[in-house]
Specification:
- The complex is a heterodimer of chains A (about 280) and B (about 250).
- Chain A has about 280 residues and is mainly α.
- In chain A, about 85% of the residues lie in helices and about 0% in strands.
- Chain A has 11 helices and no strands.
- In chain A, helix 2 runs antiparallel to helix 9 and helix 3 packs antiparallel against helix 4.
- The N and C termini of chain A lie far apart (about 45 Å).
- Chain B has a domain of about 70 residues.
- In chain B, the strands form 3 sheets. In chain B, strands 5-6-7-3-8-9 form a 6-stranded mixed β-sheet, sandwiched between helices. Chain B has a 3-stranded antiparallel β-sheet with strand order 2-1-4, covered by helices on one side.
- The chains are: A mainly alpha (about 280), B alpha/beta (about 250).
């Protein structure tokens, strides 16, 4: 491969965005998978569409709109789970659809053509501007520091919430905090793979890492590395074959997952066969 | 037994939605007490210890803990409660018993790890310490749950149905073990089958929405009938296997 392409700024930006996305995937994804928050995360990411539409209508940076709405929605879901106002799966379904609906209404109200709507839905890592990268870097730092500081607390609520309560841990604050961190991660990931594919990047690297290790800390580290691999592989495919980058990244991940699972199954099969 | 209770529950009521589960509960737990909590299913036994542990908050009434004790309550839940989906080794699982509301932001220190090793050896889990929690047998999980509770050096230990999931020989050794640690801490056991504890307990609390409290040898047929809402056969202490029968 030609090293020349690395000198283009858009390629550098794409690589930095991949790195940021992979870090948050690795830090937050394992909590989403073990605590079964995947559908919550899917719902949250779709609420971003509402923020996006409003931001277009107001004429401000769509990323700001998306961030505000996703964070508010995460607090709302967290609050609902605490108070048991409504069934959470019901609420998530409604937020999911309502987010998209509100976004569509605002976009239709906005005069003129909305240029990069597709890139928000499906991501376009090759067009991430400097200003958005700065925001993403800041958010990534917040996620990183929070997970470092509250690691024990997050593990405690993911493993056994009741026991954490009995040990007088601030479970409610930790749960809310985790929801907000998921929201921040989603904002970063939307730029890379888009609203619709966010949930894949939060779960696929973790699914692969879980095949390779049984240790939570290792799963985090492997997920980051696998995320980087998927992003870079997807980026290369998308650059050379002129395919959509978000889709290429996800499919690179799915391919790796299939490969790892098949290899593991086959090696188990051979082990059993050689023992007979 | 000293005269000041470590935990004092006064006139506590609790329920889910509008349905009361417990009403007007009062109970004192003294240092090195051994309390059996019995009563019919759905009578509120587990709810009672969840209230004491602070997992749920009472509708009304007060639960007073000695200030030294809030971080030194050990809890052995019925073992289906933790997330088996979460990858964690036996060592790390037990180690987590060391963290509480005041220290959870700090990393575990050498003291925490030494205490964990010691309790793992005592619970005969040391050789399994690197194994995943979800690969353990029922009895091993039970011992890991007890280890996690004991590693915090508790002053009061709560056990929810500790005898249901283990076989008989394990039951005997669990009883000997509880008698041994009872020299250092108060123990409160929820059980639907008080028979094995007949020779060990000091007080018995029958819970069925209300709480009836008795010292040893004070439990009479009248109270049990009130608690269970049906006639029960009651036999004397000291003959463990026929101590108490539900019909």
């Amino acid at each position: 491969m030609n090293i020349e392409i690395l000198k283009y700024e858009f390629v550098q930006n794409a690589l930095l965005a991949s790195l940021l996305a992979s870090i948050v995937c690795g830090l937050i994804g394992p909590f989403i998978v073990t605590k079964r928050l995947a559908s919550i995360s899917g719902g949250l990411s779709h609420t971003a569409f509402a923020g996006l539409g409003m931001a277009y209508w107001l004429g401000i940076n769509p990323l700001y709109g998306a961030s505000v709405v996703v964070i508010l929605a995460s607090l709302f879901i967290g609050y609902n789970e605490e108070r048991k106002v409504d069934r959470n799966d019901l609420l998530i379904g409604i937020l999911w659809a309502a987010g998209v609906a509100v976004g569509l209404i605002f976009i239709s109200l906005t005069p003129g053509f909305v240029p990069d709507l597709m890139s928000f839905l499906f991501g376009n890592i090759l067009t991430v501007p400097d200003s958005d990268l700065k925001i993403a870097s800041g958010l990534c730092l917040i996620v990183f520091l929070s997970v470092m500081i509250f690691y024990q607390g997050f593990v405690a609520i993911a493993l056994d919430e009741e026991y954490a309560l009995a040990r007088r841990l601030p479970v409610r604050i930790l749960k809310m905090g985790l929801m907000v961190l998921i929201a921040l991660s989603i904002v970063i990931l939307i730029q890379v793979v888009g609203i619709i594919l966010v949930i894949a990047l939060l779960t696929i690297p973790v699914a692969i890492a879980s095949e390779l290790s049984q240790k939570f800390r290792n799963i985090m580290i492997y997920s980051i590395l696998i995320g980087i691999f998927s992003c870079v592989a997807g980026l290369i495919i998308s650059y050379w074959q002129e395919l959509p980058s978000g889709a290429s990244i996800i499919l690179a991940g799915v391919f790796l997952l299939t490969l790892v699972k098949t290899t593991k199954k086959l090696s188990l099969y051979w082990q059993r066969k050689s023992r007979q | 037994m000293s005269d000041t209770p470590v935990i004092s529950i006064h006139n506590v009521s609790f329920g889910y939605d509008d349905r009361p589960i417990l009403e007007g509960i009062s109970l004192d737990i003294f240092p090195k007490d051994f309390i059996l909590v019995i009563g019919p299913n759905g009578g509120g036994k587990t709810t009672l210890i969840k209230l004491i542990l602070g997992i749920i908050k009472p509708w009304q009434g007060a639960i007073q803990l000695d200030s030294s004790i809030a971080t030194r309550l050990g809890y052995v839940p019925q073992f289906s409660n933790f997330n088996k989906n979460f990858p964690i080794s036996v060592f790390d699982f037990v180690l987590m018993g060391r963290s509480h509301g005041q220290n959870y932001l700090k990393r575990y220190g050498r003291e925490d790890k030494t205490a964990t090793d010691a309790i793992l050896k005592r619970m005969d889990l040391y050789d399994l310490r690197r194994k995943e929690m979800n690969t353990l047998s029922g009895g091993q999980v039970q011992r890991a749950l007890i280890a996690r509770a004991l590693v915090s050096d508790p002053l009061v230990l709560f056990l929810d149905e500790p005898t249901t999931s283990i076989d008989f020989t394990s039951q005997i050794s669990l009883l000997e073990f509880l008698e041994d640690i009872n020299r250092k801490m108060a123990i409160l056991v929820i059980t639907h089958d008080p028979t094995p504890f007949a020779a060990t307990y000091q007080h018995i609390a029958c819970v069925n929405r209300e709480l009836y409290y008795h010292g040893q040898n004070e439990l009479d047929r009248h109270t049990l009938e009130k608690v269970y809402g049906c006639p029960v056969e009651l036999l004397g202490h000291g003959i463990p296997h026929t101590f108490l029968h539900r019909h």
